[in-house]
Structures are given as C-alpha cells and as structure tokens.
Design brief:
homodimer, Rossmann fold, six-stranded mixed beta sheet, DNA-binding, 434 Repressor (Amino-terminal Domain), 12 strands
DNA sequence: CTGAAAGCGCTTACAG
DNA sequence: CTGAAAGCGCTTACAG
C-alpha cells in the first residue's frame, strides 16, 4: 500500500541514503543509479513521507498566509495570487485567519511556528508587529503589509494609495465639486489611517478641505450609518470619499433611502474595486487595488528573502489606479453602442 | 529556544513517556505527576513538535477542504463555517483548490494523502468520484456534495434545491407569469444538471413548460451571452430562472443593455444568494443556499464519521429557501412610506 | 559516487 | 501509575 524508502532502496539495489539523495536531486549521483532508483520509485508509486521528512530537515514545504477574514472579498484574490505563486514553486499554503480575535491571533502565530512554515505573508494589521521578531527568530521569513522597517528576513509590501487618490481627487475637482467629506476606515486600523491622511492632505492641497472626516467599520451597514451623520450637516458635501468599497456601498444605500440621487446630488468614491463592484448601481467610482498581484508579489518577496539569507529584506510598492464607472445614463448609451456584455471582473 | 519533550521530562523529573502521556491526556497518571509536568511545560513554554508527532502516530491534526476556486464567492462562507468548526475541535484546515485543472486536481489528492489529513470535505464536483476510494483506502474520511452512495468513511451532504425552487415557481406563477425560460449551469456540472431537472420538472407541473432551456458557465459574462440568445426568440419569456446568481447578474446586465426593464419586462430568479447579492439593482430574487451552515455540517459529518468508524456514513440534507427581493417599483412605494425613497435607476 | 549509522522528537506496547 | 526501549521514515555528516 504505502511504501517506504527502504523498499524502494531494496528494489533498486541501493541504500536508502542513495534513494534520498536521488529524490533530493543531490549532485554526484551516477546517471545509472538515478535511473534505477527512479524506475523503482515509479514502479511502487512511491512518495516520500512528508512528516518524516519535515522532522528530519526541521522545516516544511509550507508557507503561511495570514488574513483577517475569509469572507471579506478583499482577500480572495490575494489568496489566489499567493497560492498560485506558491504552487508554481512546489509549495503549499497554510491559510490562517485571525477573525479579529486576539486569542485566535495568538494561536495563529503558534500554528505558523509549529508547522515550521518557511515564510509567512501577513496581510492583516490585526497581527502586532511584535510577532515579526518571534517568527524571524525561528528563521521564518516574513512579508508584511504593515510599514515596518525591513530587516533580516523581513520585507514589506506597500500599497501606494497616493497615485490613485490623486487621480480621484483631480477627477472630482475637474467635475466641479467644491465640498468634500471623508468616511475613513476604522480609527484603529493602520491602513485606514494611512489612507485617511493621504486623502485629507490631497484634498486640502486641491483646495477641497474635507468636512467632516469620520470613521466607519469596513462593513456595509457601518457605511450607511456614517453617511447619515454627514447628511444631517447644513453644508452637505457634494462628494464623499469612502475608505473602502464596502463603506461606499453602505453610503450609496443610505443615500438612496434618504431620497438623494447618486451621483447627481452626491458623488461617492470607493477604494478597492472589490469583485463585482462593477455591478453596483448607481455605478461606483473607485480606486483599484491590484489584489492578485499583491498575492503574487508577496510570495515572490518571501521566496527571494529566503534565497538571499545574508541580505536584508526589501520594500515593494504596488500602485493603485482610479477606476471611473459610468453613471447609469452614460452607461446605457455606451452599452447600446457596444452591445457586448461586460467581463466578469 | 525550542525545547524538546526530554527537557520537560528532566525538569519535571519524570520520563519523556510520562510527559507524552500527560500531554495526550491519557488516564492513569497521578494528579501529582500531571501537576509537575504541566508546571514544567508552562515554564519552558513547551509545545510538542507536530512533525515528530505526526510521524509517530501516522496521522495529522489536519482536515482537508477541497474547493474549485477561491475567488468564487460561493465558497467563502463554506470555508468559514468549516474552518470555524474544525478550529473549535482543535483541528487545522488544509485548503486546496482544483481551479478546474486536471493536473492540479491530481496533485490535490496527493497533498491530502501526503499530509495524512484525517478527513476531507469535497465541495466541488471537479473531483471524480473515483478518488473517494483512493482516500478511504488510506483511512481518510470523506464528505462529498456529490450524490454517491454512503459507505464506510463516506458521508454525503445534499443541498435540497426542490424546496426553494418550488417556492420560487409558486411565487412567479402567482404573479401571473406564463412563459418561463431556464439558463442552467454548465452542462457537465452535476449540481447544475440536478438543479436543471428539478426546475424543468417543477415548472412543467405548474403548467409553465420552460422554453428555451439553455446552459451557461458560472460567470457573469456567460450569463449575459446566454440571455441574448433567449431574447431573440419570438415568444420571449417573461421570467428567466438562472442556475446561479452570477448567471442571473449577467442576465440582468444584458437585459439592461438591451433596453429591457427588469422585472417589469422580464423577471429574473437566481440561485445562491451570494454575498452582496442584496446590493444588485434591480433587486435580485434568488434561492438561498445556507453556505456557512454547509461548511459546519460538513465538518460535523466528518467528525462523526471518524468517531464511529465501524458504521457507515450518513446522508445529510440542507434545505434552500426563496428570498424575495423587492422590485424597484415596489421598493419605491415601500421607501416612500418609510420616508426613504429613491429607486436604483 | 555510495553505504552504515546516528539523529530528528515524538508515541506506545511491554514490563513492572 | 511509570520507565526503558523500540519504532515512525526520513536526512546527512562521516568514512570510504
């Protein structure tokens, strides 16, 4: 049924050490031996026992990917990119989610160590920076989206929101908007506050001092609640920048319910371009974050980090980009000319 | 840094065998010994080496979850339910996706075996039934959504679409629809053809013989293409049942682009109630598949299967349910009363 | 280029 | 209730 290396060795008339060497593609093995061993391997459909192997060499063929919640559509394409890249190089992915739960987060770090992952990409800021050292001490490479200093075994991937934001601000300004507001992500979230800062700064420079600047969870209903507060102000804004597409969706829904017309009364700008965001009506203008690419780059960064152990990590930057979706009316006209369905993503 | 069981044993002044027994909660250990050992474990922050453990006992603390594609929103809540349930019982999840690629699918099965998962839930029909035996031969429990006979180590989870479909058919019939059409999922997909059959049968029984009955991939653009063919017929249907929400979305988009009004010209019914489907405008009526529950049940089924090894598996059935979303017009009225008017378009 | 042997860190009959 | 020892299936200096 399940064969061992010894059985292969016997069949090939060599020692198990030789079989091991052949399978690990060590040099200095005669072509003849390789051939005999591989024939035996083939014949028995032999596969090495990974547990024994991991025990012997002290590491696994696993890479960790830590996210906060699997149901957040923001992550799915990152996972896909990371997994595909890992797969290409023959590695498996241990997917761990913190669910924003502290206890669970601790356990996640333990799992990573226990499973002797070679490296881990941390795609959530719900993991404290302090765990990075815990991991690198165990010789585990780390790639994080948090803005920490690069170090031995630590690289960072940064999403440059500025470019997309600047494009977006320029766009709304050129449309004549004069009063802007901001609904940023959660106050405690680092990425959220980076985006917020960039937004506020950018708007000010363009003479669009945003008011108010509020916060919201990354959930649709929170976005809805947040927008209601904004509407009650006397000098209501004509454009609202939202910290994520989910917040933007909530805002759109709440505006609809309040009898406002989007975008003619109030324009909404989101961030992320999450899957299916193109289906939202009224059309959602948003800033695209290239997620599959983020996943791929994260793995590539880890791979490089582990290959060049002597050096320290690097900083990778991924750019964002404004996506202008047509208003319903424009779209209808557009569609008539195109008479073609839109792509899935 | 990383301690071994021997070090713990030394500190507790017992043998490593005893430490092992304490950690495995074997009975027949004196309370005193347990205390001493646990104190030593605590002091050293000791954790067992999982690789050594897996090698020694021949199995892992992993369960496999096989899906077809991570970016399909249909799966994310299943993953979540499964992972949460596994986590509760102290197990980890190895998430594997076939990406509909044959080679990759083979590799997935290998991975499951190599990692000595205790059980696996197969939530995709892109895995042949024949692999089930391959897995059970290795003593790996299998839960599948495919309609195979239950067996030793094999349980099935079935989604009962009939209930939701019957409700949906009754609903559209009561609204006065007389001409129905069907855009089923891919012809080669087993689930798709089960749904198709149930639909066609149910419609006929209600005197709504569907015409045409076509097929489409589970993608938005495919749905759009499919609906165009239907529209070109002379006796165009007034209601179209779609094999998934994604297909339904594509249909809605294509109808919009063709200048049709949904639902006053044509009604659309989807299946799944995927995340954020409530955001679609015009509102999408759909049949809800309780996905997180599916994930939880799948794990529970595996857990039970492995506990009662002597017996054979069981068949679990999960019911679906019609979700009626308000049409734009209805919504308008509804909203007016609520002092929150504003239809989507 | 290849083999004998020690070692990776656990678990578990066996014996007491 | 507890320990000595064999065994799980690999890898890798060491020696040749």
């Amino acid at each position: 049924m399940t064969h061992t290396m010894n059985e292969v060795a016997k069949l090939a008339k060599v020692s198990s050490a030789t079989v091991s060497r052949v399978l690990s593609k060590s040099p200095y093995i005669s072509a003849k031996t390789v051939e005999r061993v591989m024939a035996a391997v083939e014949k028995l459909s032999y596969r090495r026992n990974v547990h024994a192997r991991r025990l012997a060499i002290g590491k696994s063929d696993l890479f960790g990917l830590v996210i906060s919640e699997i149901t957040n559509p923001f992550f799915s394409e990152i996972i896909r990119g990371f997994q595909a890249a890992a797969w290409d190089r023959g590695f498996d992915v241990l997917l761990l989610n913190t669910e924003y739960d502290e206890k669970r987060t601790e356990a996640v770090v333990q799992k990573l160590i226990e499973n002797s992952v070679r490296g881990v990409a941390i795609v959530t800021s719900s993991l404290e920076d302090s765990v990075i050292a815990t991991l690198t001490d165990k010789n585990i490479g780390v790639v994080t989206f948090n803005p920490v200093p690069v170090d031995r075994l630590v690289s960072t991937v940064t999403i440059d929101y500025k470019r997309g934001l600047t494009q977006a601000i320029e766009h709304v300004a050129s449309l004549g908007h004069r009063r802007a507001a901001v609904i940023a992500g959660p106050q405690t979230n680092r990425t959220a506050s980076i985006i917020k800062q960039a937004l506020v700064e950018g708007l000010r420079q363009r003479g669009l001092d945003p008011d108010p600047v509020t916060h919201s969870d990354y959930h649709v209903d929170a976005g809805a609640t947040a927008v209601q507060a904004i509407l009650s102000a006397k000098d209501a804004p004509t454009v609202i920048f939202c910290g994520s597409d989910l917040i933007a969706m909530g805002a759109i829904l709440a505006l609809e319910e309040a009898g406002m017309n989007v975008p003619s009364d109030v324009s909404i700008v989101g961030i992320d371009d999450i899957p299916f965001s193109f289906l939202i009506r009224p059309a959602l203008t948003t800033i695209r974050v290239p997620r599959e690419e983020l996943g791929k780059i994260s793995f590539a960064a880890l791979d490089k980090l582990l290959k060049l152990k002597r050096q320290r990590g690097a900083e990778y930057v991924v750019e964002t980009e404004l996506v202008i979706r047509k208003s319903a009316a424009q779209e209808r006209k557009f569609a008539l000319r195109q008479k073609a369905p839109r792509p899935a993503r």
